[in-house]
Amino acid sequence: MLKLKYSNFTFECGTDEAGRGCLSGPVTAAAVILPNNFKHEVLNDSKQLSEKMRNELRADIEAQALTYSVAHVFPEEIDKMNILNASILAMHKAILGLKHVSDFIIVDGNKFKPLNNIPYKTIVKGDSKYLSIAAASVLAKTYRDAYMAEIHEEFPFFNWKKNKGYPTKEHRLAIQNHGITKYHRKSFRLLPQQLKIEF
């Protein structure tokens, strides 16, 4: 069973991001503060759940959370500041979007930067240990997937609806055949080294 809280603070917020390893689309973060009586049998790290289950959980989380917030950081900013800084920026934006000011932050992973002097703890594999981080991972993933499905309509040959912008063979082949779009991260290696790409 996942634990509800790491600290004794009232408004402990969990945060996580999705889309760090993608070639296109934003990196998306969510922040969630859960009530003290929150319980859930199914909630876990979003990577362990089916898409259908994630979407059902999203509705549960949104209905039961004290407050939640989701933020995107787009390719142009990712290219300027690198993906790690963009991921942290997305988490900061999500936390600042909450209706309650967090008095403690738990972060999935091992990298974070201080935000407004709020105490925080980074937790490796936190999304499989704490409910609020797991909830944030589900929201970040479902909101990002929905965004990728939207832009899929504009450029269907990349099949973002299915691959969500990750570096699948199909996605790389489409880049090779069609070039890149405004949604691609130009600072990423979009093709293996032997295949060159013209910007």
TrEMBL record:
Reaction catalyzed: Endonucleolytic cleavage to 5'-phosphomonoester
The UniProt entry's sequence similarity note says:
Belongs to the RNase HII family.
Q: Which GO terms describe its cellular component?
A: cytoplasm; ribonuclease H2 complex
Chief subcellular site? Answer: cytoplasm
The record, for CDD domains, names: RNase_HII_bacteria_HII_like
- Tell me the GO BP annotations in alphabetical order: DNA replication, removal of RNA primer; mismatch repair
The protein, known as: Ribonuclease HII
Note whether Ribonucleoprotein occurs among the keywords.
Answer: no
Domain RNase H type-2 stretches: 10-199
- Record lineage: Bacteria, Pseudomonadati, Bacteroidota, Flavobacteriia, Flavobacteriales
Enzyme Commission number(s):
3.1.26.4
How the cofactor is bound: the record states: Manganese or magnesium. Binds 1 divalent metal ion per monomer in the absence of substrate. May bind a second metal ion after substrate binding.
What are the entry keywords?
Answer: Cytoplasm, Endonuclease, Hydrolase, Manganese, Metal-binding, Nuclease
Tell me what organism the protein belongs to. Mangrovimonas yunxiaonensis
What the protein does comes down to: Endonuclease that specifically degrades the RNA of RNA-DNA hybrids.
| Named cofactor requirement(s) | Mg(2+); Mn(2+)
- Protein residues bound to a divalent metal cation: D16, E17, D108
Q: What are the recorded GO MF terms, alphabetically? A: manganese ion binding; RNA binding; RNA-DNA hybrid ribonuclease activity
- Is Lipid biosynthesis among the key words of this record? no
State where the protein is found.
Cytoplasm
HAMAP family per the UniProt record, alphabetical? RNase_HII_B (MF_00052_B)
